[in-house]
């Protein structure tokens, strides 16, 4: 894997294929608010007397923001057509990515507003908890913003699951005997579900999802040129040494099906 | 198998070559290499060729066998000692499509070849890889959708098989 695709894939943990423009837009807005608060900081300084109460409130709010962040990241992951982004570990990486992006603002604010003015003196536990809460809040705001984009034009979860399930079920046409009504109807379902899978994948936004689409379309165009007998061989696979060309297509199909299983979440 | 409704539906077309063997080789060549050589001699780009290896323990599944327009049978491994009576029965009763080409490959001397030829006078016997390739190409290039005659031949074969399978 080259470096550029790696960076792109890492960024897609945050953008889910919707480009970095929105991320930059929000970050720049946050920087703007930071500079404004610096400008008026003297007037905004509040003396906190009940520190323990604020500590509890900030901590509680942080936990709530993190939970919302995880929820939205999970829902975005479930709606992408990228098998990699569906993995639980990648969902955590996504959440961490949002935290990191927002943490940059908070660290920058700390350097400008606190360290540069007071050299770090007088900073207590409450300030750290407040910073964590602020980071969680910014991260959640970002995630909610991206979620809105994903929801707008990505297929919903039910459609993803139903389309994949229908395709999987239609493979059963090879189990029916020749000339039976069951074989005829399931084979027709198989043909239409291939079309539906293509439609679904055409909505892929992520690099990984588009790669799956290319892989599927390449396999499908070759598959559809084959005779019924070869199609069956590709679907079933061969027990012993057989037609290596068809076996290769069988392996491609198995890899594609595995990726769909990850997306489906079974 | 699906029936071709119109002559135009025949293009493009894929033909399967049925390989009946236990060793996957014949005349000291891998069957896959022999099929590749056959494929190279096919005129135009409208006819696709794939070999189909059918399990000899499942010969009763005639529905799969008849979907192949060329049958290549390794005589030494399948017919010499009547190892697979079901296969012998199919050949004796001509239970293969009329439009199909059955080629029996005999790995042996001229006396053996003559014996097999007299045993199966209605079938083609190949005694070398070159003959097997030539007979297969001969049939496949006749049933090649690049010509109208080829398309008609394929459609006839398709109708015959579909009728046998009960899909029309």
Number of strands of chain B: 7
Give the tally of β-strands of chain A.
0
Question: Helix and strand succession of chain A?
Answer: HHHHHHHHHHH
CATH topology of chain B: Rossmann fold
Q: What can be said about the biggest beta sheet of chain A?
A: none
Count of separate structural domains of chain B: 1
Poorly predicted parts of chain B: none
Regarding quaternary structure, what we see is: heterodimer
Structural class computed from helices and strand pairing of chain B? alpha/beta
The total count of helices of chain A amounts to 11
Helix percent of chain B reads 40-55%
Rg estimate of chain A, integer Å = 26 Å
| SS strand fraction of chain B | 15-25%
Number of helices of chain B: 7
Kindly provide the name of the CATH class of chain B: Alpha Beta
- State the helicity of chain A in percent bands: over 70%
The gross shape of chain B turns out to be globular
Order of helices and strands of chain B: EEEHEHEHHEHEHH
What is the rounded distance between the termini of chain A?
28 Å
What's the structural blueprint in terms of helices and strands?
The complex is a heterodimer of chains A (about 270) and B (about 170).
Chain A: H1 3-15, H2 21-39, H3 41-44, H4 51-79, H5 88-118, H6 125-153, H7 157-170, H8 181-201, H9 207-223, H10 228-236, H11 244-264
Chain B: E1 13-20, E2 25-26, E3 29-30, H1 31-40, E4 47-53, H2 62-65, E5 70-74, H3 75-78, H4 85-92, E6 101-105, H5 110-119, E7 124-126, H6 129-142, H7 148-165
Parallel strand pairs in B: 1-4, 1-5, 5-6, 6-7
Antiparallel strand pairs in B: 2-3
Report on this model:
The complex is a heterodimer of chains A (266) and B (168). Chain A has helices at 3-15, 21-39, 41-44, 51-79, 88-118, 125-153, 157-170, 181-201, 207-223, 228-236, 244-264. Chain A is mainly alpha-helical and 266 residues long. In chain A, helix 4 runs parallel beside helix 6 and helix 9 (207-223) packs antiparallel against helix 11. Chain A starts with a helix and ends with a helix. The longest helix of chain B is centred in the last third of the chain and has 18 residues, at 148-165. In chain B, helix 1 crosses helix 6 (129-142). Chain A binds chain B through residues 177-179, 184, 225-230, 233, 238-246, and chain B through 1-2, 12-16, 24, 32, 48, 50-53, 55, 63-64, 67-68, 165-167.
């Amino acid at each position: 894997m080259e470096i550029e695709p790696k960076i792109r894939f890492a960024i897609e943990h945050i953008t889910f294929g919707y480009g970095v423009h929105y991320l930059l837009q929000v970050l720049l807005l946050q920087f703007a608010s930071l500079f404004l608060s610096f400008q008026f900081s003297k007037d905004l300084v509040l003396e906190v007397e009940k520190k323990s109460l604020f500590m509890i409130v900030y901590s509680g709010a942080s936990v709530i923001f993190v939970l919302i962040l995880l929820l939205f990241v999970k829902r975005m992951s479930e709606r992408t057509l990228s098998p990699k982004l569906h993995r639980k570990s990648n969902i955590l990486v996504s959440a961490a990515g949002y935290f990191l992006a927002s943490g940059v603002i908070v660290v920058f604010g700390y350097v400008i507003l606190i360290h540069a003015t007071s050299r770090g003196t007088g900073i207590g536990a409450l300030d750290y908890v407040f910073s964590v809460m602020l980071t969680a809040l910014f991260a959640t705001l970002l995630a909610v913003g991206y979620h809105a984009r994903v929801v707008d034009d990505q297929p919903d979860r039910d459609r993803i699951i139903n389309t994949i399930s229908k395709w999987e079920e239609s493979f059963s046409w090879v189990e029916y005997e020749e000339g039976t009504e069951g074989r005829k109807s399931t084979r027709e379902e198989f043909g239409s579900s291939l079309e539906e899978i293509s439609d679904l994948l055409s909505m892929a936004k992520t690099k990984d999802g588009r790669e799956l689409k290319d892989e599927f379309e390449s396999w499908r165009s070759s598959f559809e040129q084959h005779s019924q007998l070869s199609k069956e061989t590709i679907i079933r696979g061969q027990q012993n040494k057989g037609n290596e060309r068809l076996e290769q297509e069988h392996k491609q199909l198995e890899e594609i099906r595995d990726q769909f299983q990850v997306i489906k979440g079974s | 198998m699906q029936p071709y409704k119109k002559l135009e539906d025949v293009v493009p077309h894929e033909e399967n070559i049925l390989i009946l063997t236990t060793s996957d080789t014949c005349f000291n060549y891998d069957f896959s290499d022999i099929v590749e050589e056959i494929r190279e001699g096919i005129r135009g780009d409208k006819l696709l060729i794939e070999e189909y290896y059918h399990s000899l323990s499942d010969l009763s599944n005639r529905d799969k066998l008849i979907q192949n327009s060329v049958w290549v049978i390794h005589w030494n491994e399948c017919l010499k000692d009547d190892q697979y009576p079901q296969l012998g029965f199919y050949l004796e009763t001509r239970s293969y499509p009329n439009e199909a080409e059955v080629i029996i490959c005999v790995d042996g001397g001229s006396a053996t070849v003559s014996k097999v030829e007299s045993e199966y006078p209605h079938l083609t016997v190949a005694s070398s890889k070159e003959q097997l390739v030539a007979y297969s190409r001969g049939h496949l290039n006749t049933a090649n959708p690049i010509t109208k005659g080829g398309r008609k031949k394929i459609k006839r074969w398709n109708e015959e098989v579909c009728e046998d399978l009960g899909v029309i």
